[in-house]
Amino acid sequence: MTFHDQLKALHQQAQADAAQRREAERQARAQQQAQEPDFATLMADVTPLKHHNQYYPPPDRSPIKPRRHDPHQQDDNQNFYIGEGGAHIDIPASFSKNGQGANDIKRLQAGHWQVVADVDLHGYTQEEAQQVLNEFIRFVQKRGVCGEIIHGSGLGSRGYTPILKSLVRRWLMQHPDVLAYTEPHPNNDGAVRILLKRPFRRDPNDV
What we know:
Helix content is 36%, strand content 12%. By secondary structure, the chain is an alpha+beta fold. A hairpin with an 8-residue loop joins strand 4 (178-182) and strand 5 (191-196).
């Protein structure tokens, strides 16, 4: 099965899962509404207490601070996610880490590593795109270390803000198995070529 076949199956599964979640949420809301008692009916025979000039402190209306999201935290399926809708800063055209720097980028641009698979993310939501990227990383690592991701330039997005392009590149910059990425085609910022760590394979003779 090619990755595009896996991608099609993944997309269908993601749609089915989303529909199942929506139906479960709808049923939960309906059940909750059915179980909620009529407050006015319950309080019909209750006589309110007389006011005794007792002081009640004002309610705390300070905003609730959300818990900080750890972008490196993975779920039970070992999938990697980052928050959607991050600040749209200038994402670099090339990125590398782990000390290799310019060498990895030059080799990626020169085609030093064989591109073993590519994926086109057009038409996916941010959540679906991250699901596909997780599958794509695993697919590439089983066959090599280099792949190509087409995310588009974002010129068709609302306000000409490259939402998917920014998400993909932020995701790659933070993923622990991604060593580098770069734009492989001159005058085209709609795709990136990536370099991955070689997956650790335990020696079968090592007990």
